[in-house]
Structure formats: structure tokens, C-alpha cells
Amino acid sequence: EVVLTQSPATLSLSPGERATLSCRASQSLSIYLAWYQQKPGQAPRLLIYDASIRATGIPDRFSGSGSGTDFTLTISGLEPEDFAVYYCQQRRNWPPRLAFGGGTKVEIK
Amino acid sequence: EVQLVESGGGLVKPGGSLRLSCAASGFTFSGHTMNWVRQAPGKGLEWVASITVSSSYIFYADSVKGRFTISRDNANNLLFLQMSSLRAEDTARYYCARDISSGFTSAWYFDFWGQGALVTVSS
After folding, report:
1. B73: closest CA of chain A, how far (Å)
2. Helix or strand or coil: residue A34?
3. Which of B72, B80, B84, B108 has the smallest set of CB atoms within 10 Å of its CB?
4. Where is B97: in which H helix or E strand?
């Protein structure tokens, strides 16, 4: 079973600052990792898949990088609407054993 | 516009059963793998189950295997989750989610989500 560990648990930043979120896997995932954003009372929204591909309609201030066991989500300049919880999600090739990390909350400092 | 609308949630006693439905519209339902993901109150996301386009392949999380059954009705654009032998730890909001890939390949990422159905297991 692949375990995803997200850090930090909470990130306190001001609007306009750069956010760097980490997701570490217990086994190599190649590039098979996604990032989601979830705001209170809302369903999650897909931001990034296959480690670095932005989903449709996602602003280019969101970028993903990494491969193997270490992945990063970067938000280049925080907008007020970006304060939320972010989850990473892995997929194994076959059979798919999908799992999410524990989440990183990005809060206003 | 893609829409996923869950229904069937509610309060059920431990050991009881419940069936969730997800009505899909705005896309070719029969062309996408579909999934259930849940979120316990104040907690993170947990994948529950997936079903491929023609129901050829079905996968479950270990935590629900043998108790939950995922199915789909492509003629009526419906996804189901039959839940039995429910436990307190199954209390969560259950989201229906679409796989980003269409056709007979699955990407195993979720690009559209419903608003969820709340299931509470309590005596």
C-alpha cells in the first residue's frame, strides 16, 4: 500500500506570497500523482494531474512538479480564493489502489 | 454543463443498509469510469470504489470490500453505491466523481464531482 504524506499540515501565508506544498510517497509513483483543492462546504476541484499537467480552466499560477516519490504543488502568488485545503492523490497502474494524502491547509497569515 | 447529483443519504443504524444514487448529465456517462469518494466530518478524502465504462472492472477500498457494491446503469446515466453492514466509521459525505479520461482507458483522476450525500451511521 502506497502512503502519501503531505507537509506541512498548515501553511500560513499572506496574499501575494508563494506557496510550496509537498507530497511524499512511500513507493515510487512515476508521475502518477494529482492535486486537488477543496474549500469549506465544497467538493474538491482537480488542479494538476500526472504530476505537472494543469486541468482545464486552472490558472497558471498553479504548477506541479516532481516524480518518483517527491512531488510539489506551487502557487506562485496567492490570491484570496486560493486559501483552502489541498490534497494529493496517487494511482497505481494496475490494479488501481487510489489514495489521498492527509491534506495541507493554506490559511491567511 | 457536467452535473453529478447524489441522493439517498440519511441516518441509518449500525448494521443497516443504504443505497446511494448519482444522476449524471451534460456528458456521455457511458464513456467514463465512475467513482465514489467519501469524506468523514472534518477529515480528509478517502477513495471508496470505482467502476469502468461497461462494468468490466470494479475496484474497492479494503475498508469497504465485501460490504459495499458499486454499479451503474448506462441507459439512464445513473451510478449507485449499495452499502450494507454499515458501521459508525462509514459516517461521511459520499461524493460521486468522474474519471478525467473518456473511452476504455481510465486515468484514475477525478475531474468532476457532485456535492455529495451525507450518510450518518448511528444508533
Report:
1. 22
2. strand
3. B84
4. strand B92-102
User: B120: which residues sit within 8 A by CB, 6+ positions away?
Assistant: B10, B11, B12, B91
B66 — alpha (psi -120 to 50), left (phi > 0) or beta? left
Give the pLDDT confidence of A22-58 residue by residue, as tens digits.
999 999 999 999 999 999 999 999 999 999 999 999 9
Structure confidence by residue, pLDDT tens digits, B79-122:
999 999 999 999 999 999 999 999 888 999 999 999 999 999 99
B31 Rama sector, left if φ>0, alpha if ψ -120 to 50, beta otherwise: alpha
Q: Which residues of chain B neighbour A5 with C-beta distances below 8 Å? A: none
User: Which residues of chain A neighbour B95 with C-beta distances below 8 Å?
Assistant: 43-44
DSSP state of B40: -
Determine the Cα–Cα distance for residues B107 and B98; give it in Å rounded to an integer: 10
Comparing CB atoms, the residue among A32, A55, A100 nearest residue B47 is A100
Residues in B 24-63 with any Cβ partner in A closer than 8 A: 35, 37, 44-47, 50, 57, 59
**Which residues are within 8 A (CB) of A68 and not within 5 positions of it... i.e. 6 or more apart?**
A25, A28, A29, A30
**Chain B residues touching residue A2 (CB < 8 angstroms):** none
Residue reference for cell 475498508: B63
